[in-house]
């Protein structure tokens, strides 16, 4: 199942609207890089666990 994470679900002074979706390992990697480079977080095991906990299953959209 694909996962997603949405910056709008996290407290932020930047009002970031980025949504990342894909396989869990892809989302974790991209969201960690985004959190470090854009939001100034330190890359740590704790950050990665917080990101994993915030991931949601992506609901497939049918046309």
From TrEMBL:
Pfam families: DUF1059. This is DUF1059 domain-containing protein. It comes from Streptomyces kronopolitis.
């Amino acid at each position: 199942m694909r996962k997603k994470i949405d910056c709008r679900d996290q407290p932020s002074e930047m009002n970031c609207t980025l949504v990342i979706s894909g396989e869990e390992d892809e989302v974790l990697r991209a969201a960690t890089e985004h959190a470090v480079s854009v939001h100034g977080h330190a890359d740590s095991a704790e950050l990665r666990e917080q990101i994993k906990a915030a991931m949601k299953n992506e609901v497939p959209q049918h046309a």
